[in-house]
Amino acid sequence: MNDITDKPIHLVLITGMSGSGKSVAITALEDVGFYCVDNLPPALLESFIELEQNQHSPRVAIAMDVRSAASLPGLPARLAQLQRHATRPVHLTTVFLDATTDTLVRRFSETRRLHPLSLKHATDQHRALTEAIEHERELLAELREQALVLDTSLIRPTRLRSQIKDLLGATQAPLTLVFESFAFKRGIPMDADFVFDVRMLPNPHYEPALKPLTGLDVAVAAYLAAQPEVVQMEQQITSFLSHWLPQMLRDHRSYVTVAIGCTGGQHRSVYLVERLAQAFGSAWFTRVRHREDDDWPTPPSPAATHT
Predict the structure, then answer these.
(1) What's the pLDDT tens digit per position in 46-97?
(2) One domain for residues 155 and 208
(3) Beta strand spans in 184-236 (E)
(4) Domain that includes residue 93, residue range
């Protein structure tokens, strides 16, 4: 039998803005077999991992947030030291959950919860909440820069759970490439590393037979594949990513999110996301997200597959 101390620990750090869905993420990881701890003070991180060195569970998830504000500035250094000096190899993934300020204000107002940085006796609670959220962004800015960012502004808790399971429940690859379609009319995803605007391409929305379909349907795919502009756009995005992804991997990036946007997030962006995921799936660990699929008029057809 192999010594368990030779097997790496997969440590997932869940952090981010208050009200962005960290409790949902922790629950999702518990569902796929992670040992989870909520609100562990950063000062106890090394001691906790030492205790886990001799445990048989190889997957651990820890939630940390602004409730430990006094210790957050030193957390990136603690994480780096942990990876260098742990007796058992530690594979670290940091996930930062974010949302727009308006979304966070609405969530706190709906639940009547008090933000951890809010002043209880402020005369203007709405202003106090907004200022607390912006202050929290400042405190967490360094952590956000080093993490996989998930924008939860427009997704339901059930969708967030599935995304967390999809990204972290499987065996981790050196770099995960996430392709995401979206509608510009609902805003650019906050978690995007690259954003490509494809609204200038021919639009199936104006073809009566194609309007109720999506970029996953065969008829829409055939229509777009026949358009020279669409082919050229796909080739140029592929060329750009093929050049820069290896360099991002050398820079120790674990996740890269490529967002493709059109007007409604239903036809052109969906088609190109599926095409790009197919093109890069043989060389990279890829995942696909269609942000607006809850609003599609018809259920998507499994016309396209991806890795």
Answers:
(1) 888 877 766 656 789 999 888 776 666 678 778 878 777 767 778 888 999 9
(2) no
(3) 194-197
(4) 4-168
